[in-house]
Amino acid sequence: MALALRPTVLLTETEYGAALLDQRSGDYWTLNPTAACVLRCLVQGRSTDDAVRALTGEYDVTAETAEQDVARIVDELRSARLVSLEGDDA
């Protein structure tokens, strides 16, 4: 999955995960450590399977739960228009 931050979105690591700022709208979002881990994996060009493995390696969570979490996080980030997938409209 080719996932990228939109050009107007900045990512900053925090003590408790990460923060995203959409410079266009001025809105910002905070990501808990789980969501930050998923986002970091995917924007580095790694696969959703890699993100699932990162979650199961870091947290006490089953692969099934991690798969659901990855899908939900990606859907939420896309819905907020913070990231895009290859083939998404601009």
Task: Describe it.
The protein is of the alpha+beta class and 90 residues long. Helices cover 43% and strands 24% of the residues. The protein has 3 helices and 5 strands; from the N terminus they run ββββαααβ. A 3-stranded antiparallel β-sheet has the order 2-3-4, with helices on one face. β3 (17-22) and β4 form a beta hairpin. α1 (33-43) runs antiparallel to α2 and α2 packs across α3 (63-79). The longest helix has 17 residues, at 63-79. The mean pLDDT is 92.
Give the SSE layout:
Elements: E1 3-5, E2 9-14, E3 17-22, E4 28-31, H1 33-43, H2 48-58, H3 63-79, E5 83-85
Antiparallel strand pairs: 1-5, 2-3, 3-4
Jot down its keywords.
90 residues, alpha+beta, two-stranded antiparallel ribbon, 24% strand, globular
Largest pleated sheet: 3 strands, antiparallel
Flag low-confidence runs: none
Strand content: 15-25%
Which outline best applies?
globular
Through-space gap between termini: 17 Å
Q: What is the number of beta strands?
A: 5
Number of helices: 3
Helicity, as a percent range: 40-55%
The radius of gyration over CA amounts to: 13 Å
Roughly what is the average pLDDT, rounded to an integer?
92
